[in-house]
Amino acid sequence: MKTWQRIVSAVLGVVGFVLKPITNCIFALIYERHARKVPPITDSILLQSGTSLAKKIRKREVTSEQVVETFINRIKVINPIVNAVVSERFEDALAEAREIDSIIGAGKLDERYSEVNAPFLGVPFTTKEAFAVKGLSNSSGLKSRSTIIADVDAPVIKNVRKAGGIPLCVTNVSELCMWWESANTVYGRTGNPYNNSRIVGGSSGGEACTLSAAGSVIGVGSDIGGSIRLPSMFCGIFGHKPTFGIVNNDGQYPNATAKEKDYLVTGPMCRYACDLKPMLKILAGDKGAKLKLDQEEDIRKLRYFTMEDDGGDMLVNSVDSEIRATQRELVKKLTESLGVTVQPVQLSKLKYSLEMWEAKMSTCGGTTFCELMGNGVPVNPYLEFIKWLVGLSNHTLPAISLGMTEKLGRLFPEKQKKAISICEKLKEEFQELLGDNGVLIYPTQPRVAPYHNQPLLMPFNFAYTGVFNVLGLPVTQCPVGLNSEGLPMGIQLVGSLYSDRLTIAVAQEVEKLMGGWQPQIRG
Ligand SMILES: *[C@@H]1O[C@H](CO)[C@@H](O)[C@H](O)[C@H]1NC(C)=O
Ligand SMILES: *[C@@H]1O[C@H](CO)[C@@H](O)[C@H](O)[C@H]1NC(C)=O
Ligand SMILES: *[C@@H]1O[C@H](CO)[C@@H](O)[C@H](O)[C@H]1NC(C)=O
Ligand SMILES: *[C@@H]1O[C@H](CO)[C@@H](O)[C@H](O)[C@H]1NC(C)=O
Ligand SMILES: CC(=O)N[C@H]1CO[C@H](CO)[C@@H](O)[C@@H]1O
After folding, report:
1. Membrane-crossing residues (predicted)?
2. Per-residue pLDDT tens for 439-497?
3. In the structure, which protein residues have their CB atom closer than 6 angstroms to any atom of ligand 3?
4. Domain-by-domain residue ranges, the chain?
């Protein structure tokens, strides 16, 4: 670090330390007056994994109709509090459930409905509104798309349907899925189920919220900078970002063009870790073979590493002490329960996470964000900002700021080149460190879910998740308990390319050790 950087860093640190309680007080004053949690869960159907529900439906211990109806009723209870579900097909879902019940009831199931081909037969699922689900809204939170109704299912939605899943509804996102608070001018803002004065994260924020509040049990998200992992942490559930290039990204808006093809990934989100693997298998389809998901792994034989922060990027908040302490507790428990050593590491290049993400995203060509905002015709973000100031813009402030940042980034090509070369070296370092049997434990975010709009004061914290998009590595976000304010904390398990089965296997152990998803109110 150069001297001036040290000084700026120190000053920002002090300012941040002083400002944190002050800004928190201001946001608390604005948002906390009417803060609520979702009500307790009263039906045991809502407290089982998708895998376990599927088994019971197949054995006729419960009907698919009962299960679907129970989730629909739960959505009706939670949605007035959190505003997470934006478009539904409840009647169709119930009809499909009855059809499945009658097929199961008739006895002998044909090949199509075997346990291997239809592991989630009769189980409802949900997805973010950016994915096309036939008959449901498909706007991606963009005002000019607000009347679009999807006329087909996205390929991943088709896959889950083929596996027996029944789509229930689609859930809220940030405008064009490019911000980490799920709010837009089409469907409004989603509140955190643990405390709705807080954000749910984004862009798969409505999805994480619905899953956490037990309005759903398995879901599909996508992630280009943390859109699966960040909301999964803020809402206390599991979310897996697969190795790049495995799961089909088509049928979501914005569509993955040449540009994001390598960074955007589609993956599973769920409350119970045991659902991650079967969901990933279904989403991946034929390409999943490369991940060898059925290979048994002895997690005692893996090598474990831990890193508690990014090494101090000036523009990113430092990791909260409670999150740090919880990560240490996890390391201790893993050591004891598995008899492994967890080696502390410090990969110094992670400090440039933000620069690497920004440089990779803005130099890969394809549709610009300003073009996406204008649905083809680029908008002028500076003009939109002026319109926003007087309440005339159809866009959210984060989207407008991102449009402006995109324009600014292009002014520093040399800096971007340097960041890209750091990124390439870091890829090699990760491959060397993790090999084919290593897992790194790393915070998902430096802070728990902030208040609404507060991310505008800490816009770059997503760098903690975003860096793994440009590295292409598989990552599983795991809930590791609630902090002193009752808000979920999370850690990322990072593997080397194509080692998704390892991070998922360790996630199941982390669930046992740290308690996994926690209900908002104990019933
Ligand atoms: C929301 O969080 C704040 C503190 O962060 C707390 O004072 C308040 O009681 C919480 N509200 C609910 C409903 O849990
Ligand atoms: C905002 O969107 C509405 C509905 O799509 C449209 O009628 C209006 O012209 C838009 N306003 C601006 C300033 O673009
Ligand atoms: C909804 O969006 C998806 C993804 O962009 C697209 O494939 C689908 O055709 C859209 N549906 C309509 C009716 O435009
Ligand atoms: C989305 O991308 C896929 C493949 O990259 C392409 O086949 C499809 O036409 C695209 N859809 C739109 C609406 O651009
Ligand atoms: C705040 C807001 O606009 N909420 C909307 C979310 O979506 C549902 C379903 O379309 C609407 O009923 C709400 O009004």
Report:
1. 7-31
2. 999 999 999 999 999 998 888 999 999 999 999 999 999 999 999 999 999 999 999 99
3. 132, 138, 148, 150-152, 251-253, 255
4. 41-368+406-514
Q: What is the secondary structure of 399-446 as a DSSP string? A: HHHHHHHHHHHTT-HHHHHHHHHHHHHHHHHHHHHHTTTEEEEEES-S
Is the minimum distance from the CB of 380 to ligand 2 under 6 angstroms? no
Ligand lying closest to the C-alpha of residue 222 = 3
222 classed as catalytic: no
Class of domain 41-368+406-514: alpha beta
Structure tokens belonging to residue 38: 């979702």
Alpha-carbon span 132 to 118, nearest angstrom: 21
Residue of 37, 56, 128, 349 marked catalytic: 128
**CB 377 less than 6 A from any atom of ligand 2:** no
The string of pLDDT tens digits covering residues 332-374 is: 999 999 999 999 999 999 999 999 998 888 887 778 888 888 9
Report pTM: 0.94
Distance of CA 176 from the midpoint of ligand 1 (Å): 30
